[in-house]
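Quick note —
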Amino acid sequence: MSSSSFKYREFFNGDTVMVIVPHEDDEINVAGATIYGAVKEGLQIILVYVTNGDFQYKADIRYKEVKRMASIMSLPMENIHFLGFPDNSGKELLATRDRVFINHAGFSETHGSYGIIDYPTQYMGGPLSYTYNNLVLAIKDIIGRFKPSTIIAIDEDVHVDHQLTSIAVEESICKVVKENSNYTPKVLKSFAYDTDFESINDYYAMHLQSTVQNRAWIVADFLSTNNPMLLWEDRIRIPVPPDCRSLSLVGNPIFRALGAHMSQSSYKHGPKLINGDQIFWQRRTDNLVLHATVTATSGNISKINDFLRYDSYDVTKKIANPEDYTWIPDDTDQESTVTIRFDEPTEIKYINWFENVWFSNDIGQALQGTTIKTSTGLEINIPPYYYPHFEAFPYIKQYVFEQPITIDWISFTVMKPKGVMAGISEIEIYPPNNQFPTYCHIVCNEQFAYDWVVYPGERLPSISVYCDSVMDNKDFTFSIDGKNIDYKLITEILPTLIKNKSIIIRYGNYQIYHEIVLKQGNHWDYIIRKCINIYNKISYFLHKSKYRIGFNLAQKYRYKGF
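Predicted structure written out below.
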């Protein structure tokens, strides 16, 4: 059987994880298997819903569904908080951030339902009016109150409330981190639509598939993800617990938890969400710029270190206006310089900076180059098409010093064409990386592998390894049936080794490791796997009536006209 040293506590750097999502069911879409596995390991999950899910339904129906989900996922209700803001309000709240929004049912301030008090009323002295700024205030308060070791949150999906939540969470995190210099939580962002809720229906494949994108849900062909500042290849993949990769579809806790959200017919998406990995993008909070003094010769300097690489006031546009999220120097500014000063000499190694989003073939909309200077006298000239790592996304830039340097200040001087809204949205500066891997995972044909059967007609899988940080190859080795082996020889000897027996492939060392059982399947294995798929499809069909009844019962809670 597959075994691993993976531990959620080590990956999350602590015992408390806060999950912040807009709607009641997004917790499963974004992090269902992770929540389940972390709870099983004894971690505290604090679940935060931004909205009452009350656009089509009165709030109590969604609250009841959360109670059913919590029972399935073993989540105590006292760890679940409802901020009480309105569903489907992202467009209005983002557009005018201090104006009070009144929803279609006449509500204008946060409230709870079904006997549950909304978070602002319970912890902040009273309800908050529906404004974006109050949403940031509420998220900041709940993060500051619990100070979780890790924060998992939705990112820029196509849904307006997902965009609202993503932006508000990042602004809130920035405020908390700046006020608490010793608090640097691990921040993980993820999507709910293109990678989960509307992903690929691949559960019935012969092997458990890893998470993929449904490119039909990406708003622009040239983007890597729906957030222009997040690249698909930068995703972090983590394993899922055994129960969440069960061969029984209807018995899988992810399917059952989705089924609890009956008003949304969420069970239909179970075969898309049940995958061999769960994916996130990390936003580091140890960015030295967040605690530095930042000045500029002109322009809105607050955009440089607000933790927001991307922001949008008008969600109807596929690509946001650069003025919404970017420091843009004035056309009359002859210097066009940002200077970052540290309170004391500071050692740095990595610089990431993010310019306004522009199409790669339209260089006229971009900065025409950047000059970096440091207090040590170092000067680095960066041309507009400097992209050693991100050839398709030249507005994402990175510079790595060969050796760490200690500086008092660093400046960025940009060359901006006149009349063009070009600039820098965020500068991130990091010290030398002392991170070590917390886990490794064997990959077969790019899929996270647990135990792997090579069915008749299939080729032997290509074997590789994934981990969450760079590994020292001297310390981590491959072995087959307990004997160390050179990785280059695996493909050559596998056909002989698995011809008459199953083998155990292991990678790692005595602390961090993963191993799988690999076997050559016969026709009976193939038939059994096909029968399991047939059984799952029949079971799914039989369970649909139960969920349809629940959906129909929920209709009496719908607002008229929806």
